[in-house]
């Protein structure tokens, strides 16, 4: 039985399927915005040379490394982070 008023601990690990779903959602948002991976890299990192990193994020090969990165990506894509999450997982808590 759960203690009253106790806040459950958030999951500390992101599973592969969650990473892949989030990456697909990022790709969908990028394509909807009409941007290339190089354009997103330029907007997020200040250089188009890191387009491979955007590709790896979209393919789920790597996890997003920080909330700041995700917020910058969402800003470049013209969406909120909540919108990306809703695309990835179908709902936002």
UniProtKB/TrEMBL annotation:
Q: Which residues form the HTH cro/C1-type domain?
A: 26-84
Q: What Pfam families does the annotation carry?
A: HTH_31
What GO molecular function terms would the record report? DNA binding
Entries under InterPro entries matching the protein: Cro/C1-type_HTH, Lambda_DNA-bd_dom_sf
Name the SMART domains for this protein: HTH_XRE
Q: What is this protein called?
A: Transcriptional regulator with XRE-family HTH domain
